[in-house]
Amino acid sequence: MPRKKIKVLITGGAGFIGSNLAKKLMDRGDQVVIIDNLNDYYDPQLKKDRIKKLLKGYKFVFYKGDIRDEKLLEKIFKKEKIDKVVHLAAMAGVRNSLLNPLLYEDVNIKGTMNLLEKSVKYKIKNFVYASSSSVYGNNTKQPFSEDDPVDTPISPYAATKKATELIAHVYSHIYGLPTTGLRYFTVYGPWGRPDMALFLFVDAIVKGKTIKVFNYGKMTRNFTYVDDISSGTIFALDNPQKYAIMNIGGDKEETLLRFIEVIEENLGKKAKRKLMPMQPGDVPATVADISRLRKLGWEPTTRIEEGIKNFVNWYKEYYKI
User: Which segment of 80-84, 269-273, 278-282, 288-292 scores lowest on mean pLDDT?
Assistant: First the structure.
């Protein structure tokens, strides 16, 4: 029996993960509605180009607007007859949240509540939203499990993500809205965000600038390729849970220094490194227990050797190097 096609609202759909996810959903025949305010947290041109170039030739509905705008959300939900929501719109970044905590609270918490309200009103069949591995804070037990306590966030960003998990629980419990929070672990790949390590490192090495290596390089991460993130998000979307929290990350722990080595190999150029102490709000290691999402049938498939190569190729093409 063929799968019933659905109409999905993606908030933050001009973003790194959102645009990749939109493409994958449309590739399998689903309809997509995007809302994005194209803010200037990083170069809005990159967001516009994701819509214009990455999604070139695709048919979708795009609304330029803010998830804090209740009237706009009402208009979208009423007009578009949406089946499911993937909520990715948020103020991102641990470091920036230390500088603008009230903005993070307003967008990430109020914006999420606005969407949950509309989802209940318009009987949305599944609400999948982006949480973050940063909720684990300084937990020392590895790998991080969804059952671990996450009551001690160490940045405003992490605190807002923990708050959205709690609020989603309320809407699942009171209204029966199926919600799944995905704790994303260090996402990377083509069309990635300029404030993230891979982009910063490649850009600096190409331009002959020095890269900052925090915690003197003693960092490990589950780097997760954007295609794996999108496929896992779709698994969660297709399998509504009464209320769930799931880690989504790569299945291999990588050191920051190995990550830099692979970049150097792909650029054919050595990085000038400046070893630095740990930054406030950052954590030395994030390793994911991904067994919950695996039970739905999802597996990460892309190693950093392939993923970084794909990013470097995209970077050179996009910036005409």
Answer: 278-282
Beta bridge partner(s), residue 183: 131, 247
Do residues 11 and 85 touch, judged by C-beta distance below 8 A? yes
**CATH no. for 7-318:** 3.40.50.720
Concerning whether 63 is annotated as a catalytic residue, the answer is no
Tokens of residue 216, six digits: 């003197």
Taking Cα atoms as reference points, which of 210, 226, 244, 167 lies closest to residue 17? 226
Report cis status (omega within 30 of 0) of the bond before 143: yes
Tell me the whole-structure pTM to 2 decimals.
0.95
CA distances in angstroms from 249 to 42, 231, 245, 289, listed in the order given: 24, 11, 13, 8
Torsion of CA 127, 185, 287, 261, to 10 degrees: 160
Residue 315: phi and psi, rounded to 5, are: -60, -45
Instruction: Give me Rg for the CA atoms of the chain.
Output: 19
Look up tokens 């209320």; give the residue.
243
Q: Report the chain's terminal Cα–Cα distance, integer Å.
A: 48
> CA–CA distance from 224 to each of 16, 187, 205 (Å)?
13, 5, 22
User: Is the CB of residue 238 less than 8 Å from the CB of residue 293?
Assistant: no
Run of H or E including 318? helix 304-318
For 19-33, the pLDDT digits (tens) are: 999 999 999 999 999
Which residue out of 42, 122, 136, 157 is catalytically annotated?
A: 157
**DSSP helix, strand, coil percent of the chain (3-state; round to 5):** 45, 20, 35
Mark 83-111 as b/e (b = at least 16 C-beta within 10 Å).
bbbbbbbbbbbbebbbebbeebbebbbeb
Report in angstroms the alpha-carbon separations of 95 from 91, 104, 189, 250, 321: 11, 11, 21, 23, 30
CA dihedral 20, 26, 31, 34 (to 10 degrees): 20
